[in-house]
Structure formats: C-alpha cells, structure tokens
Amino acid sequence: MEYFLIHASDLHLGERIESKEKIKQLVSEVNDYCPNLLVITGDSTHHGLEQQIMEIKQLLDEIMCPTIIIPGNHDAKSWGWKFFEEIIGPRSIKYEDKHVVLLAMDSSTPDVADGHIGRDNYHLIEETFSNAKKGKIKIFALHHHLVPVPQTGREKAVLTDSGDVLEILMKTGVNLSLCGHRHVPWIWQLEKMVINHTGTVGSPRTRGARENYYSLIRIIDEKIQISLKAIGGEEKLFKKDLSIYL
Q1: 186-190 and 176-179: which strand pairing?
Q2: Which end of the chain, N or C, is less surrounded by CB atoms within 10 Å?
Q3: 0.85 surpassed by pTM
C-alpha cells in the first residue's frame, strides 16, 4: 500500500501582500505533485473576514486533488466561523477512501487564540476510529498543537484539553495526527501515533523554521516518510522510517 498526503497550514491570506502569492504557489505545487489527499489545518485567512474567506475559497478551488479544509483561530475571528460554514463548508469533517479514514475537527473558539475540542465531541472521535475498517490508516487533524513544539518561543495557545484528546487517540489506535498553529515543522511519536506539526505557508512569522514550509507525507505499508517543501524551493527529507501499526 502506498499513500501520498500533503499537509499544509497557516496560509494567512491577508496578513501580508506576499501571502497571496505564496498561496498561489502552493496551489501550483500541489497540482504538480498530484497527491491522494491535501489536508489544510486552519488559519487559511488572517482576519476571518467574509471577503478573505471568499477569496481563499476561490484560490483553493483551483486544487485538483481531494482537499480537506478546517478553520483555525484566525479564521474564527470577526464572525469568520460562520462565514467559513457558509462559504467553504462544515467546520469539522469526516473523510474516507480506500486507504484512510480521517477526522478533521475544528478546535477554534471565536476570537480566542486557545484551542479546544470539548467533551461533547469526544464521542465522535471514539466512534470514527473505533469503527474504522481494519487495515485503514487512521488520521486525526486539527489546527492547534497537541503537544509543545520546539523553536516557537514561550508556550501558549495549546489545545486546552489536549490530555483528554490524546488519551482517546491512543485508545482508538490513531496512526497519524496533523496539527498547525505554531508555524514550525516538528514531529513527535507518542507510543504508536505520529504527530506531524507542519509549518506556515503564507505568514512571515516562521520563527525557528526560517522559511515557509508544508509537509509531504508518504506512507508505504507501515512506514511513514515526511519531507518538508519550501514554498518555491526544494524538498528535503525531514523524517523517514517512522512506524505505524495497522
């Protein structure tokens, strides 16, 4: 089994003039790669304004592969969570194909930087992954980081109920979690789960990453290889031979 997933985040349309050009470059590169799936884990806009969400929808509509988009805390500003629902679609979504079952959940709260899944949503995580067909890759995606990320400065705005969420993910055998928010690529492996934090596509606030990155995730049988792709730049191997247990 081979599966190619691109994980991008924090496009921040509207933060700087150059952010839009970087997003256009992302769209072009994704279409060239032609992955099985693209997952965008939030903060596609910087202010959550209706016109920004309309514009990001138009830009991302040019992507030719299946695409999952969830909001981040910046998208939830200024009534943006509602604009997101009306223009892009559901804030949380389940996706399934021949090889993967993915649950992407909105972890944002309007006008608050911190993330939260909430106990009313825990049952959805449990049901989705407990009922997944044996042999499928189980993927959980959200905007906020589940665990701290190095090279990002003082820790803040972590998922407030990360401990409870991590417990459920471990219990239900999730193989891969995708996070954004901190703008710095990093990978943790907790027990049998790989946690991929990707970089920022469009923000100049790259912190220790120094460049705008997204992640290329190639899964071959029970091994994951993750590479970083700089916007308009080279692809470089980040981690290889990470094990998942199907």
Answers
A1: unpaired
A2: N
A3: yes
